Each structure stands twice: as C-alpha cells, then as structure tokens.
Amino acid sequence: MNPQSSSDASGAAAMTRRGWMAGAAAAGLGVLCPSATALAATRPLPSVRDVPRRWRIGYAESMPYGNYAATLAAILGELERMGWTGGLSGMPHRPGQTDTATLWSWLATHADSPVLDFVADAHATNLTSDGAAALVMRLQEPSDIDLMIVMGTVAGIALATDAHRVPVLAFSCTNPIAAGIVAAETDTGRDHVWAHLDPRRFQRQLSIFHKTFQFRRLGIAYDDSPTGRAIASLPDIEATAERIGFELVERHVRAPIDHLDQYRYEVDLTAAWEALSREADAVYITYGRWPLDRFSSLVRPFLKRRIPTFSQLGPEEVERGALMSIARADMAGIGHFGAATLARVMAGEPLRHLPQVYFDTPSIAWNAATAAAIGYRIPFPALLAADSLHGVL
Fold it and tell me: Is pLDDT above 70 for 16?
C-alpha cells in the first residue's frame, strides 16, 4: 500500500473526543483493551553516559506511509527528551505526512547527538527485492551501519535475516511472528532481530466489528501467498472467526509486482470487492497495495450495497470511505517504547530477550457519511467514544 497524507482528503472533517470509553462499541473496546499496557522492563533506563561508543543508524521502510513517519518522529521525540539526540526543534514532521526521506536528511545534518549518527545515505523506502538485497550486502560491511530502524512487514521480512549481524528493530509490522520476522513474544529467535508486537490487535478489531454488527459472513480479500497471508494477519482472522463463530468469504488478489502491474491489481481488486459486496454481510478490508487517493473509488461497491466495512489499516481509510476502524490517540506510548529499546541495545543489553509487546488503549474512528450511506445510525455513546469522526461537514 502507498498511503498518502491525510491532509489531501477532500470534504473530510475530523473531530476529536478523547477520554470517553462509553457505549456499545466502546464497551467492547474497553473489555478487549482494558488499559494502556507496556510489557517493558522495570529496571531504570540507561543514560547516554552508559553508551561506550557512537552508533551509526540506518532506516528502511516498506513504502511511504503516515504511520511509519509518525512512529519514527515519536521515537526521535522521546530520544530527544531522554537527552540522546540533542535539540530537534524544527524537525520536518507534521501529522499525516508520509515522507521520511526529508526527515532523515534533516536528522543527518541537524541532530547533535553525543552517541548517534543518522547516516545520510542509509535511508531506504519502497523497498524492492533488489533494493533489499543491496541493503543486506551493505549491512555485511564492517564499521558502516551499526543499527537499523525498520518500518513495515515487507522491510522487516527482508532484513530479518542471518545474512548480516546488524541489530534490526522492526516497527509497524502486521504480525511479525506470522511473517517470520521474530519467533515468539518472549524470544525473537535471533540475537540481532527485534520487533514490536501487539499480538491481539486484529482479534480486538474483529471482536469490536462483530459486536457492533453481528455479521454471519465476513468478506476478506488478500494476496494468497506466505507474505500476503502474513500482511493480512490471516491466522488472527481465522482464529477470531472460529472463536466467535462467523464464516469467512474469501477472495484472492495477487499483489502488484511493480508499478507497471498496478492497473491489473486494481482491476482484480475491484472484481473481488464487487463479489464480496454481493456475498458477505460485512467486509474486513485488509492491508492492500492501493494508493490512498484511489480508496474512495475502490470502496464504492460496499456503499452501494450497504455493506459495513472495517479498515485493518486505520483512520486513513475511514477518512476516505471505510465505515470504521481503530484509532490511536497519539504516538507517545510507542515512541517511548521504541526509544527505550534503542537505548537498551546501545547500552549493551542483549537484544534477543528485550520486551517486544506493547499496546495502548485506542478508540474507534467512524465515518458518519458512510454510516448514512449504508443506513446505519451510529449510537450516540459510540460517537462520544470516538477519537476521530470523519465525513462530517
């Protein structure tokens, strides 16, 4: 997927209601996600004085995506607060942006850190197989890159390899265990690979969706390959369907090979979503490879046939026509968790058994215009509980 900045959406307005967790939908969220949770070490964080040498840092992401940029900015902000980067006033990041290249270039020249060097030419985006192979070869070079910050499942899979020994910290991956990035919650499986985990994230999403609509047939479309099934977190979907007791209606759409294959992909996706709109009671829109500016057009079959939709991605797609998703109020929690992990690694703590599990209490994002189009009246308590409400003029 190639999400764009949320600032380019037309006719969408967002309102914020923080702190409210009441009503039917929110009650389901509160039970499944009871409180801000970080399974982090209780021992004090190391200070910059505990780091015996400078570290050269690189960055790789699957593609430009707002959540990647926001996560990176949150980690950097926390490192600044901890005294690890020097002042980052003027850092080029704003809410919703997808560009990390400009941010990284700025860091390389402006971050006055006593221990961190953000290597200017060690930023990679839109990571292809060839690009990943070249990056792995670079990581084999001694005294070049000391640690990689990685965003996204595709990039995580590419760099979670024994072909190099550079520490890899992976964030914003759909299901790092299913994808083979790490082995388990308590053991990464490799001494140099770590990934942020929220093991029940998608089960929470589906439980909330089912609590709201009580569907019997849930439609999903995904790429039926090992990577595609991992990106969609298919094991979580199947486990939730079995636990709650609903049927899955599946369509398979092969991911695009490159930008020249994008048209074929969107034609196939349109056919799959058209079929699901006729056969399913509700649709769970899993991660895909469409640009966000195409989403409003692609999602029309569900509006036409009044099918409720839940975006696995989040508010970016709710803003553009999905009915609902999970929203995170801010990135402070994951920023602290990520920065603490970096600090511990650079201070010499073994990476393999550092805590990987973190989740905070999100709330629900709604699109009121989509709700009206499909004939669904959002309960008032659920509106109060929403962190973001779109489609309101």
Answer: no
Q: What is the pLDDT of residue 299?
A: 96
One-letter amino acid identity for 311? S
Name the residue type at position 88: L
Tokens (6 digits) for 313: 């991605």
Q: What's the mean per-residue pLDDT of the chain?
A: 87
Closest by alpha carbon to 114, among 79, 71, 78? 79
According to DSSP, the residues that pair with 151 across neighbouring strands are: 61, 171
DSSP, res 138:
H
pTM of the model: 0.77
In the block, which residue shows the tokens 């600044």?
80
367 vs 7: CA distance, rounded Å: 16
Least confident of 47-61, 223-237, 319-333, 364-378: 319-333
Tokens of 179: 């994808």
Residue 197 DSSP symbol: B
In terms of DSSP bridges, do strands 363-367 and 324-327 run parallel, antiparallel, or are they unpaired?
A: antiparallel
Measure the CA–CA gap between 324 and 306, rounded to whole angstroms: 14
